[in-house]
């Protein structure tokens, strides 16, 4: 199925494959699978790139997609560029559990982004749900 979604002031089109199981609806993304009744952790991060740093920030965020989607607890990991301002990016992440998100937060590639972020972004708004 294809959905039109609105998140943090951005509209984007995404898809989600749903599998029907007896008494459960399951969503599959990345390497994970979870029943809809289970508690997951969602992280939404919005970044505003510093002048002249948008391309570099975008490349790093896109590279995170490749690594993060291979993590065992990753259900979804998507990066979007604002249609109104190509200096703004949204990262929408979903994990099976808080422990899976903490694992992701301590990976070498995310630690590298954290070190570089002050040079690349003038704004970073990261929230978990």
Automatic annotation (TrEMBL):
Keywords: Monooxygenase, Oxidoreductase. It holds the Pfam family ABM. The keyword Oxidoreductase applies. Residues 41-129 form the ABM domain. It comes from the Bacteria. GO terms for molecular function: monooxygenase activity. PROSITE patterns: ABM. This is Antibiotic biosynthesis monooxygenase. It comes from Vibrio tritonius.
């Amino acid at each position: 199925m294809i959905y039109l979604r609105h998140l943090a002031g951005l509209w984007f089109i995404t898809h989600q494959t749903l599998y029907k199981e007896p008494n459960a609806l399951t969503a599959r993304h990345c390497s994970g699978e979870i029943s809809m009744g289970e508690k997951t952790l969602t992280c939404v991060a919005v970044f505003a790139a510093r002048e002249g740093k948008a391309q570099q920030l975008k490349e790093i965020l896109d590279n995170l997609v490749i690594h993060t989607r291979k993590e065992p607890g990753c259900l979804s990991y998507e990066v979007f560029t604002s249609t109104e301002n190509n200096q703004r990016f949204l990262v929408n992440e979903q994990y099976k559990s808080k422990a899976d998100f903490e694992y992701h937060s301590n990976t070498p590639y995310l630690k590298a982004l954290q070190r570089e972020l002050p040079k690349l972004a003038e704004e970073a708004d990261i929230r978990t749900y």
